[in-house]
Structure formats: C-alpha cells, structure tokens
C-alpha cells in the first residue's frame, strides 16, 4: 500500500438533464478521522452515506466535504395550471370591464398562488433517488482524486523520512565508532574517575570501590542505546516500505528515537559523543514533525 499524507484537495462533479453536482474536498491533519459535510438544503439525507464513503477510504484526517447542486432543465421547467390561469384571466377581465380595474398583466397573473409552481424533486421519489445516485457517484470520483493527492504527498513525505532515517543511522554509527569507546580510552577514563573517588574518600573500602567502578563503567556504556537505535531505524524503514496508515506507529518510533538520543547524551562522558547525541536529537525532531503529516 502507498503512504498517504493527511493533507490534500480534490474537486469533482457530474451532471445530467436533472442536475449538475460538484464536490469539493479538503483534508488536513487529525488525530483520527473526522468528516464534516456542508450540504444544500434538502440534501441532509446524504450525510450518512457520504460519511460512510469517506470512512471506507481513509483512516485519519479532518476532511471537509462541500456539495453544490445546480438543478437541470428538467427540474427548472415550471408547471402551469392552465385551467386555473384561464379562470383568473376571466376574472381580471371582468374586474376591468365592470369596475375599471387596471388590465391584468401576464407576469401578474403568473405570480398568483397556484397558477405556476416549480417542480419539487424531493416530492418525487424517483427524481430524488436519481439525484442521490448522481451526487454519490460524484463523491466517489472526488474521493478517488483526494486519494491520489494524498498519495502523491505521501510519496514525497516518504522520501523526506527516508533521508532522516539515513541521517539517524549515520549518527548512530558515528557514535558507535567514536574513539572514546575504544577499550584503552574507556580504561583511562575509568582509572581517572576511580582516582577521583579515592582522593575524595580515602577510607572507601575495596569492595565499595569495585561497586563504584562497575557503576561508572555501566553508566558510560552506550551499547544498548546504539543497538536500539539500529533496531528502530530498521523498524521505521520496514513500516515505510509497507505503506498504508502507519503514521501512528512511526510517531511511536519517533518517541523511542528521542528517548535513546536523550539517554545517549546523559551517558556520554566524551564531548564528541555528546555532540553526536545533540545532532541526533535535532534530526529526530525533524523526523517526528514530518511523521505528524502521515495517515
């Protein structure tokens, strides 16, 4: 499956002799999936099927969907009650002849209640069903376009995230290969720290001294952090390759990256490793920021 961004825009419409319908869809980031619809009066019945269609396509994102409907000729053609119109014309003529009323005009007669009515599609079950089918088909087309837009953006995000993972991997390998982790250097630093303990507490017994030395050695060991960073890089790459709605999982891994880089900095007893850890934190922040845009 392809990666998808949660941002995108789409516009699609269909028309026939009854109506022209157009959907505009806008998608932005969201913790879950929320679809908000703006429907013309009389089309509220489409809310649930439209939301269901959105839910089948996406798992995350705030999606705004606006429907506009322009009635076609078949629904705009007025219906005139000719018999009633003829009666009103006769009455107007009688008033003119008998009472001196002003002559009736065509637009005046047609404006009388009951003479001319616009067809009400909502009262016609067949017409309403056709309108609904047209609107939902147009929505499917708009959702296809929105999916394409989100996938295109997702592909770009995937490239950016791969770059961040490559940088994290390089920094991890630099920390692993740093000269401060060579046995001779580690031994020299331990000896220096142990000597500081002896100078600070001359009466410290030998067993306690060994405990303190072991504690210092453990505290300075960043092997676990390096191994976990390598594992997280491999897991993140696997998720990107799998695609689909992996944003939440990648966000969790971003938190783990951040935790390991913090621990790396706190354990470091060499300026070079601390510098690597700080650079690592900066890259992890960039990685997490971009992950927030993924479905």
Topology:
Layout lengths: L7 E8 L3 E10 L4 E6 L8 H11 L3 E11 L1 H4 L2 E2 L1 H18 L6 H5 L5 E2 L7 H53 L5 H18 L5 H15 L2 H20 L4 H21 L3 H21 L4
Parallel strand pairs: 3-4
Antiparallel strand pairs: 1-2, 2-4, 5-6
Helix pairs in contact: 1-5, 5-8, 5-10, 6-7, 8-9, 9-10
Strand order of the largest sheet: 1-2-4-3
Total DSSP E strands: 6
Q: What is the residue-averaged pLDDT?
A: 85
Number of helices: 10
Helix and strand string, N-terminal first? EEEHEHEHHEHHHHHH
How does this model look, in words?
This is YicC family protein. InterPro entries: YicC-like_C (IPR013551), YicC-like_N (IPR013527), YicC/YloC-like (IPR005229). Pfam families: YicC-like_C, YicC-like_N. Helix content is 63%, strand content 13%. It is α+β, with helices and mostly antiparallel strands. The strands form 2 sheets. The protein has a 4-stranded mixed sheet. Strands 5-6 form a two-stranded antiparallel ribbon. The mean pLDDT is 85. The protein has 10 helices and 6 strands. It has helices at 47-57, 73-76, 82-99, 106-110, 125-177, 183-200, 206-220, 223-242, 247-267, 271-291; strands spanning 8-15, 19-28, 33-38, 61-71, 79-80, 116-117. It has 3 domains: 8-75 and 124-151, Ribosomal Protein S5, domain 2; 78-117; 153-291, no CATH class.
């Amino acid at each position: 499956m392809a990666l998808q961004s949660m941002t995108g825009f789409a516009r699609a419409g269909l028309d026939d002799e009854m109506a022209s319908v157009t959907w505009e869809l806008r998608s932005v980031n969201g913790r879950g999936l929320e679809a908000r619809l703006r429907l013309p009066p009389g089309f509220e019945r489409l809310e649930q099927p439209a939301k269901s269609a959105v839910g089948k396509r996406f798992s995350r994102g705030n999606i705004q969907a606006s429907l506009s409907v322009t009635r076609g000729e078949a629904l705009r053609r007025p219906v005139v009650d000719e018999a009633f119109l003829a009666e009103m014309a006769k009455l107007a003529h009688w008033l003119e002849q008998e009472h001196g009323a002003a002559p009736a005009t065509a637009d005046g007669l047609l404006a009388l209640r009951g003479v001319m009515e616009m067809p009400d599609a909502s009262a016609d079950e067949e017409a309403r069903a056709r309108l609904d089918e047209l609107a939902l088909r147009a929505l499917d087309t708009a959702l296809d376009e929105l999916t394409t837009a989100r996938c295109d953006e997702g592909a770009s995000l995937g490239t950016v995230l791969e770059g961040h993972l490559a940088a994290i991997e390089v920094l991890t390998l630099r920390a692993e290969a740093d000269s401060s982790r060579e046995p001779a250097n580690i031994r020299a630093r331990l000896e220096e720290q142990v000597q500081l303990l002896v100078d600070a507490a001359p009466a410290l017994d030998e067993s306690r001294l060994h405990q303190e030395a072991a504690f210092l050695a453990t505290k300075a060991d960043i092997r676990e952090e390096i191994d976990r960073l390598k594992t997280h890089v491999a897991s993140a790459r696997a998720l990107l390759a799998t695609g689909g709605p992996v944003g939440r999982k990648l966000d969790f891994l971003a938190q783990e990256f951040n935790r390991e880089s913090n621990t790396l900095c706190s354990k470091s007893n060499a300026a070079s490793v601390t510098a690597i850890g700080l650079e690592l934190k900066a890259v992890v922040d960039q990685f997490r920021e971009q992950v927030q845009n993924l479905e």
